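Input (Creatininase):
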Amino acid sequence: MRVAQMNWMQIEAQAKRDDRCVLPLGCVEQHAYLSLATDAILAEKVANDAAEPLGLPVFPVLAYGMTPSFAAYPGTVSLRMSTYVAVMEDILEAFYRSGFRRIVLVNGHGGNSPIMTLATEWLGRRSDASVRLHNWWAGPRFQAAVQAVDPAASHASWMENFPWTRLEGVVMPDASKPPFNAALYQAANPAKRREILGDGNFHGRYERSDNEMLSLWQVGVEETQAAMTENWP
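Output:
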């Protein structure tokens, strides 16, 4: 259930019934022909779709993340690591004050993954709490399903092209983009990285059928739901 549709009294009662809560983590960055908010859209939707049957509260997505690699693309917003860490620590403290002790971070952006280091440090001060970071797109079940459809899947390719990340009036290229020089890319500054990537798709086709994408989505939702329910300390 979305926290945006709850009041503080309902949150207080919910935390007493079940000490789990969910925070989606996204990013605003270039995704070729897809929405700049693709990572935020996907993280929030998969979190809500997974949490709704469990009756778990999902807080509004933290839409901005760390993405310095794409800083040369207009519309990309990248927080400094120190800023992101400070914001996340404040959020974790707020969840704790509200009575939540098991916190699931449903992450939609690889650049945010280092935040688990902060969470582990925070847990050293809050020994009765537990934090789980679930990189939903990188889950083994989801990745296996992706590979079964098309191994050429990457950032801003068909793998992120769902009905809810497309833009009205934007036509996708009917092509498969070849891989780039990964070693050169890794050593480059943001401007050079934009030059290497061009439109922003890392490699692979730009879209696949809705039937394939909706089947993949269901795998992602189920795997995210498992992260909310299984193997808590």
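Strands lie at 20-25, 102-107, 130-135, 176-177, 204-205.
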